[in-house]
């Protein structure tokens, strides 16, 4: 059965899979501390999921498991139908090329200019060599996050919000099939936040990417989500569309929506 | 109770050794996998080599001067003042030059690599590189370790030359010796068995400096204070390694050459 399944997946063209990420009973603890208790999640092709949850409940840990930065203690985590924890280094690398990951801090390489930061994935991962094309893509990506004027600056000369947007540009420049956004709008002003939310939405529409968006920004959740999950103490306690959850009577859920008209 | 304290210590120690072996293995494998990062390598050679030149030059010069001033009275007492150039040349090239310069480089280079990579770890840049599918070992570790492995021997040779020149100037404070005579005496007293083992030793010193710096940086914890810890323990560990390698090298060379 396992064998047949494996073969089946290899034969099947990627575009026919409906579920790109399937997580079942995922557990992860650090020492004594049980961070993820029981995570179940299915991300469908070209779907945007927003995860809401209080600080420290394990939202970042979950997406770090998805890209194999952390290894789960128990449970299954499949991306494109294959178990991440069983992948070889090479398979993991192939997988990571298809997944974009926006770090909460932006994680710009601070020895490089913004331009070099964006060129890095193009030359190292996509192995592009045509400088004209590289320039074109770098400028287009920066344009879309409204940061073209900072192209030759060093990360240390940027504000927190600018760094975040540059990080976002670096994530989307390789057109990944899945994007994991860790708080894409935190620390940005409302106007830029809305632009970023719009951008997330337009990336989804244009490239049919699937995304998990971790955020505390309800405006972003409303705009960008197809489905919202509420995470509390290592588990998802509620799931539904933004409007459905908005009407929920659950105390924890209602607390997130209390300021929304 | 006492046992319980000891056992985790040993376990940790062995884990650490295992980690380092694995780190070395990854470094080694990544030298030969395609896509060598030439421009980063050259940049590191510049950062590591050129930027340490001044420091190495000044230190070596002072060491050369100090050694002559210190050695002189003893040799004069033995009526062997003419042996000064020879004594300086042999001791500087065999031992003092390589070790002093390596220690200086450990302080300057190992700490800066440790701090740089440590802060990349803290700010999730290493994770970001890893997750993007690029190869941080290839881009960051291979280039830095190879750069130190090439540049520390080069710095040592330059340091030797400057140190010996310092010795010449110091000698001329008291005696009058032409540069030509000094030069002939120095070159005449140095044999390949003085220079080659010392040179090989500095290659290992350079490797140890790069390796320890990279390892400590990559394995620092995720907190701002760990950047300082990474830099500090890189210097301490690299310096220790330099003396250990020196001890092994002196045994090896005396077995091979001086018997
Ligand atoms: N590498 C790690 N080692 C040890 N503990 C960790 C590690 N990563 C995360 N944790 C712990 O796991 C818990 C969840 O962390 P996580 O970063 O997932 O929170 P979060 O939900 O993303 O919160 P925030 O909204 O503040 O970003 C925290 O208590 C944190 O201390
Ligand atoms: Mg987080």
Written description of the protein model:
The complex is a heterodimer of chains A (261) and B (259). Chain A is an alpha/beta fold and 261 residues long. Chain A has a single domain (4-106, 178-257), classed as P-loop containing nucleotide triphosphate hydrolases (Rossmann fold). Helices cover 39% and strands 25% of the residues of chain A. Chain A has helices at 2-11, 59-66, 89-98, 114-124, 131-144, 160-172, 190-207, 218-224, 242-246, 251-257; strands at residues 19-30, 33-44, 48-53, 74-79, 82-83, 99-102, 178-182, 210-214, 227-232, 235-240. A six-stranded mixed β-sheet of chain A has the order 6-7-8-3-9-10, with helices on both faces. In chain A, helix 4 packs parallel to helix 6 (160-172). The longest helix of chain A is centred in the C-terminal third of the chain and has 18 residues, at 190-207. Chain A is globular, with a radius of gyration of 19 Å. The termini of chain A are far apart. Mean pLDDT of chain A is 88; it is low at 1-15. By secondary structure, chain B is an all-alpha fold. Chain B has one domain. In chain B, 87% of the residues lie in helices and 0% in strands. Chain B contains eight helices and no strands. The longest helix of chain B is centred in the first third of the chain and has 40 residues, at 38-77. Chain B is elongated, with a radius of gyration of 21 Å. The mean pLDDT of chain B is 91. The A-B interface holds A 64, 67, 69, 93-94, 96-97, 99, 101, 103-105, 107-111, 120-121, 124-125, 167, 170, 174 and B 35, 116, 119-120, 123-125, 127-135, 139. The structure holds adenosine-5'-triphosphate and magnesium ion. Magnesium ion binds next to helix 2 of chain A.
């Amino acid at each position: 059965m396992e064998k047949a399944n494996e073969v089946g997946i290899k034969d099947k063209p990627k575009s026919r899979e409906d579920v790109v990420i399937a997580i079942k009973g995922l557990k992860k603890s650090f020492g004594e501390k049980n961070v993820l208790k029981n995570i179940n999640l299915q991300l469908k092709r070209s779907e945007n999921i927003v995860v809401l949850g209080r600080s420290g409940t394990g939202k970042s840990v979950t997406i770090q498991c998805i890209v194999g930065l952390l290894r789960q203690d128990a449970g299954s985590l499949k991306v494109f139908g294959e178990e991440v924890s069983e992948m070889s280094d090479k398979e993991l690398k192939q997988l990571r090329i298809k997944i974009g990951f926006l770090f909460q801090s932006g994680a710009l390489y601070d020895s490089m200019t913004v331009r070099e930061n964006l060129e890095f994935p193009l030359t190292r991962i996509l192995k592009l060599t045509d400088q004209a094309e590289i320039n074109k893509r770098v400028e287009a990506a920066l344009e879309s996050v409204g940061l073209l004027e900072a192209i030759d600056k060093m990360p240390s000369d940027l504000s927190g919000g600018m760094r975040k947007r540059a990080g976002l540009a670096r994530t989307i420049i390789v057109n990944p099939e899945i994007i994991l956004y860790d708080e894409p709008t935190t620390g940005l002003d409302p106007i830029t936040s809305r632009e970023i939310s719009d951008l997330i939405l337009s990336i989804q529409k244009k490239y049919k990417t699937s995304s998990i968006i971790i955020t505390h920004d309800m405006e972003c959740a409303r705009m960008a989500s197809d489905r919202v999950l509420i995470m509390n103490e290592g588990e998802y306690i509620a799931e539904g569309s933004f409007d459905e959850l908005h009407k929920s009577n659950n105390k924890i859920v209602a607390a997130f929506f209390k300021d929304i008209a | 109770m006492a046992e319980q304290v000891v056992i985790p210590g040993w376990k940790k120690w062995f884990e650490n050794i295992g980690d380092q072996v694995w780190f070395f293995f990854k470094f080694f494998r990544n030298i030969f996998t395609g896509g060598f990062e030439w421009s980063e390598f050259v940049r590191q050679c510049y950062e590591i080599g050129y930027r340490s030149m001044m420091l190495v030059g000044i230190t070596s010069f002072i060491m050369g001067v100090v050694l002559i001033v210190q050695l002189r009275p003893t040799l004069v007492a033995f009526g062997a003042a003419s042996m000064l150039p020879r004594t300086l040349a042999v001791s500087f090239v065999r031992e003092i030059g390589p070790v002093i310069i390596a220690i200086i480089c450990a302080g300057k280079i190992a700490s800066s690599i440790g701090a740089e990579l440590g802060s990349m770890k803290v700010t999730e840049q290493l994770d970001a590189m890893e997750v993007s599918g690029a190869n941080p070992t290839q881009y960051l570790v291979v280039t830095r370790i190879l750069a130190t492995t090439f540049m520390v021997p080069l710095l040592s040779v330059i340091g030797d030359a400057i140190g010996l020149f310092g010795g010449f100037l110091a000698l001329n404070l008291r005696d009058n010796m032409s540069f030509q005579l000094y030069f002939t005496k120095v070159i005449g007293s140095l044999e390949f068995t003085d220079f080659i083992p010392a040179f090989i030793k500095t290659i290992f010193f350079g490797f140890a400096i790069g390796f320890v710096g990279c390892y400590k940086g990559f394995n620092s914890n995720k907190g701002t204070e760990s950047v300082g810890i990474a830099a500090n323990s890189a210097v301490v560990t690299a310096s220790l390694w330099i003396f250990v390698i020196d001890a092994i090298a002196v045994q090896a060379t005396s077995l091979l050459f001086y018997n």
